[in-house]
Amino acid sequence: MFEKTTWIKLPRNVLVGHGVLDDLGEAVGELYLTGRPLIVTSPTPNDIAGDRVRAQFDDPATAVVKEASFEAVEELTETAEAVDPGYLIALGGGKPIDIAKMAADHLGVGFVSVPTVASHDGIVSGRSSIPEGDTRHSVAADPPLAVVADTTLIAEAPWRLTTAGCADIISNYTAVKDWRLARRLRNVEYSEYAGALSEMTAELLVENADMIRPGLEESAWVVVKALVSSGVAMSIAGSSRPASGAEHLISHQLDRSAPGRALHGHQVGVASIMTEYLHSGENGEWAAIRDALAELDAPTTAAELGIDDAELIAALTSAHEIRDRYTILQGGINEAAAIEVATATGVIDG
């Protein structure tokens, strides 16, 4: 007897394009939310766009966060309980969006995502990434009720943040390969729809990397739509599998051993060069991934990440210990093999 069910939670409104920040009030109005909004932001986006957001709402409250941590989530939750908002608006990059996402979940209210940078797919996904000590936790939460991404603002953001978002998307390519491998060898549940959407999104960025350039709204448009697609793939799957495989495990280990050296997207991008090599060998697609990252001015080597060769090899050999998720690194890779992979792909010097 067939008893399978699924519950796919997606944003109701996704508004992307030139000047759409000024349509935020209208987009929120279509959600029929009640109560005052609490705008959750960080210092820079608050300076850049905070007043434009506040001007569109009656009696908005604002909370400015300075770091992503579980303590920050608790503090925001306490602030929100005093304000008693009907919903949250997350304005900015990863910190305010991840914190607002978790706080909204704790409070039992919805939130609206208003990214000012395109550095990761958390702008639309139902997961928050929160650091704690020498590790980083991926925490499930509801996705935003709406996403309003103004390409004017995003095109003006630091280019390295955009390239990190691109690299994060490109790494989906190997994440899906890990997911399929887990399906074949461990009978892990696999969604053809989510896998195909995630893989297609990564392939489109690889194939069009030469068209993505700093300061161009057209480029911001392409990257944001790719990030939205990646987030939707995770919502369809009900997990981070479409966008997180061995390359993310390697990145998490680098967060532990070399915290703050490189952006998350850049780390998973470099890691995906190596994991693709492990999947398909010297004649596989690893060179296409490397070349696409290089075309985007994203790092392709440990040195460009600011990571020592030894630190990278240590992360590669221990990444399988991070969590119980079947990937190409299942059971681990020894130091000699790790050096060979990193050298063959040019991630470290031979």
Fill in the keyword field for this structure:
alpha/beta, Rossmann fold, Dehydroquinate synthase-like, alpha domain, two-stranded antiparallel ribbon, 51% helix, NAD, metal-binding
Q: Please tally the β strands and state the result.
A: 8
- Share of residues in helices: 40-55%
Name the shape in a single word: globular
**β-sheet strand percentage:** 5-15%
Q: Over the alpha carbons, how many angstroms does the gyration radius reach?
A: 20 Å
Secondary-structure element string: EHEHEHEHEEEEHHHHHHHHHHH
Q: Report the span from N to C terminus.
A: 57 Å
Annotated CATH homologous superfamily of the largest domain? Dehydroquinate synthase-like - alpha domain
**Discrete helix count:** 15
**Quaternary class:** single chain
What does the model show?
- With 350 residues, the chain is α/β, with parallel strands linked by helices.
- The protein has helices at residues 24-29, 43-54, 70-83, 94-107, 151-156, 159-170, 172-186, 192-207, 217-237, 246-257, 264-280, 286-295, 302-305, 309-318, 335-344, and strands spanning 13-17, 37-41, 61-64, 87-92, 110-115, 127-132, 135-140, 146-150.
- The chain has two domains: 13-19 and 37-156, Rossmann fold, CATH 3.40.50; 162-344, Dehydroquinate synthase-like - alpha domain (Dehydroquinate synthase-like, alpha domain).
- The protein has a six-stranded parallel sheet with strand order 1-8-5-4-2-3, sandwiched between helices. Strands 6-7 form a two-stranded antiparallel ribbon.
- The longest helix is centred in the middle third of the chain and has 21 residues, at 217-237.
- Keywords: Cytoplasm, Lipid biosynthesis, Lipid metabolism, Metal-binding, NAD, NADP, Oxidoreductase, Phospholipid biosynthesis, Phospholipid metabolism, Zinc.
- Substrate binds at residues 121, 168, 252.
